[in-house]
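Please fill in the sequence for the structure shown.

STRUCTURE ENCODING:
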């Protein structure tokens, strides 16, 4: 953390009137603003992000997110990898949502090739996408209170994560980067008895979720740090392209799983419930995330019931050894755990993409900070930043 002094007059560098803080009105006395660098590291070490804050006392009057410290040029690497190889690159920008990241790429390629994925693979993908969503949300449900000084919740959250992680690891062989999606379906079918173990994991997490809810949402210190803090207006959500649970916590009723169904979501409309809250503050964002875990568990149970009735069958489509995508372009988007992920694929008929542009949820969500932080105090900045639920690799790509 470093500081530099910036001398301003009157309203200061960002237009905030320091006289208001002193109780005066219209004073032209010289004032000194401070520029404070938070980072280049997230306060809770989620990754390498830098915020350049302009302060008047302890009040923030300007914020400039400085990103790129984890940029690895994924989009250019896509252009020199074939369509099977790019999956392993795509699942890493948001390391908490690896399965969802793979999914967007293969959906775009399948759309370009006109491939019809077997029904069993469609339902399995839906199931695994929701299991991955629960894993993602549990991480933030545990780590966010940690940023506000509460240590205990992270142990509860990780207990539930390990329960889900066990069945995901058994199925895919990967703990975080599953590499289980393939163009045309999935890597392989389920191990014997896996559906029963997945159902038991879902029931265990559902039964213990009230522990997390009680220990956090009922805590008066947590409420004091989050209620009414960092209110994000629906207008800002639209202007900055904010999506996912953050947008829904500001009353924006939007979810691609319902609005533009993909996978098997079109057959789950009676189970899928879009959670919204009107407040738009830090508390609402956390509450929406917690409620979405319950919705995902409902979807998981519905997928398990459906899979138990499906006959044995293929989970992928046989493809040629060298996979070439027809010339053309397409755009695929998915409701990933952190928001909308978009994949713009342009093909020249080769075995590698000519262009694969990635629209990541975290980048747009973090872009709203310059409009959200001015006028708030430094301690509230920590609460607001943590409630934006981002992964730095997802910002930088």
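FILLED IN BY: designer on duty
SEQUENCE:
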């Amino acid at each position: 953390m470093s500081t530099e002094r910036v001398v301003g007059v009157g309203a200061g560098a960002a237009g905030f009137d320091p006289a208001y803080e002193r109780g005066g009105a219209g004073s032209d006395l010289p004032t000194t603003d401070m520029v404070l660098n938070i980072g280049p590291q997230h306060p809770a070490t989620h990754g390498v992000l830098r915020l350049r804050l302009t302060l008047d006392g302890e009040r923030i009057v300007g914020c400039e997110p400085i990103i790129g410290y984890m940029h690895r040029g994924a989009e250019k690497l896509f252009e020199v990898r074939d369509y099977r190889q790019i999956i392993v690159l795509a699942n890493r920008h948001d390391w908490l949502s690896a399965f969802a990241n793979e999914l967007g790429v293969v959906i775009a390629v399948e759309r370009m090739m006109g491939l019809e994925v077997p029904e069993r693979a469609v339902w399995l993908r839906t199931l695994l996408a929701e299991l991955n969503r629960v894993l993602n949300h549990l991480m933030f449900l545990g780590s966010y209170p940690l940023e506000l000084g509460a240590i205990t919740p992270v142990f509860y959250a990780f207990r539930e994560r390990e329960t889900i992680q066990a069945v995901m690891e058994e199925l895919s062989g990967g703990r975080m980067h599953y590499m289980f999606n393939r163009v045309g379906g999935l890597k392989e079918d389920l191990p014997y008895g896996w559906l029963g173990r997945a159902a038991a994991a879902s029931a265990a997490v559902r039964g213990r979720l009230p522990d997390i809810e009680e220990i956090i949402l009922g805590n008066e210190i947590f409420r004091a740090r989050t209620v009414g803090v960092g209110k994000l207006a629906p207008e800002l959500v639209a202007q900055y392209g904010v999506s996912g649970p953050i947008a829904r916590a500001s009353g924006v009723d939007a979810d691609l799983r319902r609005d533009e169904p993909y996978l098997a979501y079109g057959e789950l409309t009676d189970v899928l419930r879009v959670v919204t809250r009107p407040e738009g503050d830090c508390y609402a964002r956390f509450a929406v995330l917690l409620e979405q875990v319950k919705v995902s568990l409902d979807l998981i149970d519905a997928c398990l019931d459906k899979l138990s009735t499906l006959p044995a069958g293929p989970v992928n489509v046989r493809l040629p050894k060298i996979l070439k995508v027809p010339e053309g372009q397409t755009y695929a988007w998915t409701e990933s755990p952190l928001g909308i992920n978009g994949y713009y694929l342009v093909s020249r008929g080769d075995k590698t993409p000519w262009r694969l542009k990635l629209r990541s949820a975290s980048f747009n969500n973090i872009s709203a900070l310059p409009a959200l932080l001015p006028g708030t105090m430094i301690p509230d900045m920590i609460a607001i930043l943590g409630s934006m639920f981002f992964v730095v690799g997802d910002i930088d790509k």
